[in-house]
Structures are given as structure tokens and as C-alpha cells.
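Q: Here's a chain of 367 amino acids. Please give me its 3D structure as C-alpha cells.
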Amino acid sequence: MNKKALVIGLKSNMERVIKGLNEIEFIIIDRGTLDNESIDYIINLSDDLMHKKSFSYVIASSEDFIALAGLLRNRYSLYGEKYYKSTIATNKFLMRNFCSGFLSCPKFWLSGEIINSENLLLSSQKDYIVKPLTGSSAKHVETVTQEDLNQYLNENNKLMLIEEKVLMRDEYHLDCIIKDGNILFSTLSIYDRPILEAKSKNRASINLPDGTRLHEDALILATNLQSHFEMTNGVFHIEMYHTQDGFILGEFGIRPPGAGVTDLYFMYRGVDFWEAFIYSQIDKEFILPLNHKSDKYCAAIGICSSFPVDDIRSTSKVSVDKYVNLRENAAKPAVPSSTSFNHMIYVSSSSLEEIRNFLHDISDRQE
């Protein structure tokens, strides 16, 4: 008899992997139900499915459902990351509390501490980042000046996380696959601009070649994080600020990267982060492809408006390897985010400068 897995919010990225898992029967709670029903309803529904189907695994589909998956694993004593670690990886305040003792992090406060203390912000920092305790893709994340901070918090009237805005050179993300408690694979990418500057604009993640000094430095941070978090099997998506003193932790998630980056890694390295993510939740061994090295710069570029791909191909010095129309004639999303794209293009080059020039060319035409 096949084992069963409860899938919380099936995403299109997962379908290719799930179709190949004939030994597992998948039970799906759809996104509409998850978005529109209460947590009590979802738990009662899960109880009913456990009673009728007796599933062995719970699969989270995205950042939104990592903590819920952990809660259900605790509730039924199932395989996988439990609620405690899942909340550390999804609640920004708990994440900061957990990491600040062993990693370089921005100073942080809960919004209530700011409102109820006149002298709490004693630094010379002019700008602060205000963000919800949970969420991804920089939704509802804002930069607020010190002078406007109290007014902003009182007007929004909900608990938020406040962080000092870090003076950075660049913003990076390190994506890792964990197997049996060790980092099996990692790769470093640089954003073409800080994420908060990219909302409702074109944005790129540029994957760096193997063997750079920056990758080695970023891996030290990731190794330190893993030594404390102690994930058995899974994936890390770690946002990092590069400053004059080295890397500072932005945030981390225990899910694959978004904004077309998983497709980028699969195209150019043959490494499937969605496969690693799903396998880690059903106790199935992930095998890293032998040919996963890269000696070039590869970029996933999100485009917000109309895009003359044929014109770009004819004039560009980079290789335009793939173009995807995500939402033809789509309206802008109600909540601007760092992943609100209508098109994705994937390019490669032996030169980081050529990719940056290509990005500037697109921005000149589109933004």
C-alpha cells in the first residue's frame, strides 16, 4: 500500500516532482481553502483527512505554510521539521532572537517597544525597515525615517518588526541543500539592486561562478546557521547584506528561492531545489547531480512591463537562453512585491559586467 502525503497549497513548481513520485498518494488542501478559512477549520479538516486517509507526511508548498506544516507534524507525530523550528524560520522576530546570539544581524525591536519608549532608538541611524512578523517577497515591508517612525507605527496600528537599515555594498542570497545534517550543495547569487528598491520594478538574481571568495565567506555564515538550527534534510534560502565588515544576515527561509531562481539553478546547474525540498518532507533521499558546477554568470531577470525580447536578443552581448511570458495582459498585483513580474528571461555570460550592462539596457527601455 502506498504511503500518503498531505500537501498544503499545491504550487505549479511542485507538479513536475510530484508526478514522478508514484509511490506516494497525495492529498491536497487547495490554496483557496487555506486563504479563506480559519486555522481552526484547517486543523479540523486535517484531522478529518488523517482519520479517513491516515497520511504519513505533510508537505508545505511555500513560506506561507511552513509553520502550519510544522504544527500538523507535531499534532500527528510525523516525519519532518516540527513547529518550533518552522516558526523560527517564518516569524521574523523569533528568527532575529534565535540568530542574533551567534550571527551578525541588524539591531531589531518589536513595534510596541518603540511606541512605548521615547529613548529606545539611541543610534545615529536615519532609516529603519518596518516589516510584518511573517511574509515573503518584501510584501508590506517599508523603509521609514526615524522622524516618521512613531507616526507610521501608530497609523498602522499592528505589531511589526523594526530593524536598523544596514549600509550595504550589495545584497546576496545563498541557497543550500542540507542532507543528513550537512551542507550538500550551496550556490551564491547577487541581486542587481537591494530587494526593497525592486518592488514593482525589474529585478535580477545573478548566480556567481563556483570558487569565488565571496561564496566561501557566505558559506561560513551558512555553516554557522546550520550548526545552531540543526536541520536534518531540507533547503535554506539565506538573504545576506554585504557590508565593509563582511556578510550580515538579512533573513533565512527553509524553502526554495522564488522569482524564477529555482528554474535558473535547474537550467544552468541541473540542481532541482523543488525536488530537494519535497523529498526532505517525505523522507526520500535527494541525489545531487554530478555535473552541477558552473564557470559563468547566469541571471534570472523578472520584467514587470512589456518586453521586446527579439530586439534585445539581436543587440545583446549576453546569451539570452530562455524567455517566459508569465501573465499576458496581467494587471499589477494589489500588493506590490519584489516578485511581481509579467515576464522572466534567463541569460548567461562569462562577464558580470556584461550582464549588468544588459540589465541597465532593459531598465532604460522599461522603467
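Q: Can you summarize the key feature?
A: The chain has a mean pLDDT of 90.
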